[in-house]
Amino acid sequence: MLEENIIIIHSEPKSPVSKAYRVIRTNIQYYSVDKAIKTIVITSSVPLEGKTTITANLAISFAQMGSKVLLIDADLRKPKIHKIFWVRNNKGLTNYLTCHDDYHKYVRQSSIQNLNILTSGVIPPNPSELLNSEAMKQFIKDARNEYDIILMDSPPVCNVTDASIISTYADGTILVVNSGKVTIEELKNSAALLKKVNANLIGAILNNYNNYKTSGRYYHEYYSEDYGKGKRRKKQVNYESYYWNGEVPKRGEN
After folding, report:
1. Could you write out the DSSP letters of every residue in the chain?
2. Per-residue pLDDT tens for 4-44?
3. Could you give the dihedral angle defined by the CA atoms of residues 199, 8, 77 and 248, in that order, rounded to the nearest 10 degrees?
4. Which of 194, 182, 115 is nearest to 154 (CA)?
5. What is residue 219's predicted lDDT score, i.e. its pLDDT?
6. Distances 31 to 20, 83, 111, 201 between C-alpha atoms, Å
7. Taking a C-beta distance cutoff of 8 angstroms, is the pair 204, 177 a contact?
8. What are the residues facing 15 on neighbouring strands?
9. Residue 233 belongs to some domain of the structure
């Protein structure tokens, strides 16, 4: 089963939003002619910018074109991928990294053809250390040989170091930018933090851009928790997403 109101590209494949995801997929495919972008970290500056929703839809988009996809919930603090795909999270990435077992035992086949999922697993006391471990780096190397593309959902880059850590051994990093949530200063800070660790910031997805003129607007409401605040609140999201090449917009452009 799937959370249909979130997985728009599956429930409404002909919608303008689904077409936007396919455009983003194409941009990623042709980003580099010299080196294939196979492992991608998707993050945001602050919570509630829509990164998990976008990561899940992009994963399905790649799977729909026949690519073998692995979707990893690398948000070991507030994981959500298992909720979107309606699977249990009693075992996953953290269990594999601590047990040093065969990772195939923890990967699930989703209801979408060509899409496998590795949920976060039990929330650990040391997320950053696990993500920075040699076991994690070796896992990504091994998975590269089996999958066409690996998408990793990670925590916001300004809140914790997790996204910066993963980006050091990924082929590319994408920032989700919610125009109604993030400030230019926060976006610049995110780009600076990623640049500091030599992350390959290949672009960003602009979400909730209300000024764009389109024939259809797609919204849904879901409940989400703020990092570190423990508050549960309703959030309205506009799925209009666009892609740009990583340059931080100047004040007044967003």
Report:
1. ---TTT-HHHH-TTSHHHHHHHHHHHHHHTS-SSS---EEEEEESSSSSSHHHHHHHHHHHHHHTT--EEEEE--SSS--HHHHTT---SSSHHHHHHHT--GGGT-EE-SSTTEEEE---SPPS-HHHHHTSHHHHHHHHHHHTT-SEEEEE---TTT-SHHHHHHTTSSEEEEEEETTT--HHHHHHHHHHHHHTT--EEEEEEE--TTS--S---EEEEEEE-TTT--EEEEEEE--EEEE-SPPPPTT--
2. 568 788 878 888 889 989 999 999 988 877 778 999 999 99
3. 30
4. 194
5. 31
6. 16, 31, 29, 11
7. yes
8. none
9. yes
Q: Looking at residue 31, what is its pLDDT? A: 84
Question: What is the predicted pLDDT for the residue at 2?
Answer: 59
pLDDT at 176: 95
Residue 159 lies in a domain: yes
Q: Tell me which residues of the chain have a pLDDT lower than 70.
A: 1-5, 210-254
**pTM of the prediction?**
0.81
Can you give the pLDDT at residue 211? 47
For position 43, what pLDDT does the model report? 96
Q: How many domains does the chain have?
A: 1
In a domain, 155, yes or no: yes
Give me Rg for the CA atoms of the chain: 17
Domain that holds residue 93: 8-244
Residue 101, pLDDT score: 87
Q: Is residue 3 in some structural domain?
A: no
Length of the chain: 254
* pLDDT at residue number 210: 66
CATH assignment at residue 17: 3.40.50.300
Identify whether the C-beta of residue 157 lies closer than 8 Å to the C-beta of residue 44. Answer: yes
What is the distance between the terminal CA atoms of the chain, rounded to a whole angstrom?
36
